[in-house]
Fold these 3 entries.
Entry 1:
Amino acid sequence: MTYFPLMLNLRDRPVLLIAGGPETGAKLQALLEAQAQVTVLAEEDHWNLADLAKEGRIRWLPRGYREGDLEGFFLVVSHPRDKGIHPQVKAEAERRRVFLVAVDDPKNATAILPAVVRRGELVVALSTSGAAPALAVRLKERFLRLLGPEYGELVPYLRRLRPRIAEIPCFEERKRLWYRLVDLALEELDLDPEAGLTRAKEKVEEVLAEVQPWTR
């Protein structure tokens, strides 16, 4: 199956987590980091649900899934102890036009979660389209070694350059300049991960000083 890769903004959006499986804690943490409004269905509290609910970080319903539970949700992540409920959950999700992440059950899912490498605002998502999750995890481990924190620190610096470069009226000139700057920065990071970011910024500023005055 061919999936369409997509980054979702879940901030303040209602998300239902049907809990119980071994990765429940990790899925819950990821949703909280995305600042979603999380409702958790879980018969037992193995993930500090009561404390999180008391703090107002989640809404916890201490029971399993029931027909009608998906109403009003933007996304559903289902990771119950018994995946036998997934056909019923999928049927409701289809009726309500809600995307369903059925963890470790791709045949009942309409969306899947990739393995993620996160360095600040730099996010790399890896997926095998549900075919071999272990491979995606091992590739994630390699990317974690390849992309140190300095790559994440580069992103906000480049973002701050956007208003300056946007002043260049010609799209093709802006495009060429962007790739030139990014290539310079990556070259410095590859040569020296520890000091490369400082040197990269210096080289970028040197280039900007050479081009049109509106980038100064």
Entry 2:
Amino acid sequence: MIGRRLILKIGFFVLLVLCWEGIVRLQILPDYLVPGPVQVGHSLWEMLLDGVLWTAVRKSMARMIIGYTVSVVVGILLGILLARSTLAKETLGTLVLSLQSLPSICWLPLALIWVGINEQAVIAVVILGAVFSIAVATESAIRNIPPIYLKVGEVLGARRLIFARDILFFAALPELMSGLKLGWSFAWRSLMAAELIRADAMGLGRLLETGRSFNDVPMMLAAMIMIICVGLFVDSVIFGNLEKRIRRRYGLAR
């Protein structure tokens, strides 16, 4: 079954590349505007050999790990507060929900003024891009915990810290994983947007902007493919496997 799915996915992408090459050969648009997969592959290979691509991936992932880790810690704590406090839900909850709808790139001008044109500004945008969605997801996951779990914890006299750690967190974990995965995607997009704008921030987003500066469309498409591949790897391989293990452990696997 897994082999059949893999063959289906590979076949789809091979067909997609062939269609792309076919459209380019029709010469509807000049190849310097819409390059073929061979040109893009050549650009990708050159960046791999030069080490530019690996440096960009390493720099972007370093920022991502720092920003996303802070977002997870703050977002989960904020979500627990919103779920357990009616006052916080009616006041702070409205603000969190409003800020979640704000595009993350809107934070960049403020971050540049608040912390300066430096690495911290990019990381701040990553944090602000993900923390509110994680907080909302955490609140929703906790509110959907079966009430019997909470009553058992209260009857056993679990203190606040133990109650939050051993009951709230683990009972909400299966649903919380979806929120953490969504938070990752928000953080990843925020990072790419911040790297695009900040001129001295080497990374995948900056690689895309460098291609635009030199009118190098193959380089831009190669950078976009790498951004997609990294995001897909984290989403499918890391979060996908982690989610399967958690669901299997909780008896939710199908």
Entry 3:
Amino acid sequence: MFSEKPLSSIPSTIPQEFSIPNSPTSSASASPLSSAAHSRTSTITSNSCIRNGLLTSHQSSRQMKIGKYFLERTIGKGSFAVVKLATHCDTHQKVAIKIIDKSRLNPNDHKKLEREIVIMKSLMHPYIIRLYEVMESRNLIYLVTEYAANGELLDLLVREKRLSEAKAKEKFRQLVLAIEYIHSKNIVHRDLKTENLLLDGRGNIKVADFGFANTFAPNKKLQTFCGSPPYAAPELFQCIEYSPEKVDVWSSRIAP
């Protein structure tokens, strides 16, 4: 359903070291590969990668390949997904690959994921995380996105305690431009918070995680409560219809 190209080189399950952690509400676990299958999938390499010095022979014999990407360390985990840092074999570009276990998705989760993918594909802005590619195997879905090398804005705030006025103004300017663009596409994010504001290698804002995003009609209100309570607008707690643009504006004033 999500595939954009043939996936003959993509394994349908992942080894234990890449497995998705058990959900707190589920006893199901990701199926590890057999030893033979693990050997076949984890030793898929590209001669061009080795020639270009991207991998040593020792590394290439142990590193797992997904499509044209070599997986590296884990940079995030959730109830039904893990996020891996990866490198494109030919361009050497760093990306983040979200690996989603389809067996953990209920029908509502699946619908939300489809919507998130459609929304992310429609967005192209310097301060929004790009979705490069979507791949699918029998058991897993892979979302290949832009990699934000400097992590979350929250981590920066924890490290520095407070930002200078100049730095805070620049971060907020970038966030406002991203929100303005999102709303111009009749899309609402609904979960703006410091954990979902990433920073690229130059420290620029990258709005991420469109799991609660939705489209809206101009001058029409929404009524679904979602998002993170510390950042949510008051009308969401009142269980009344709300202006989609206004709830994002409220959250943006708190997030930075």
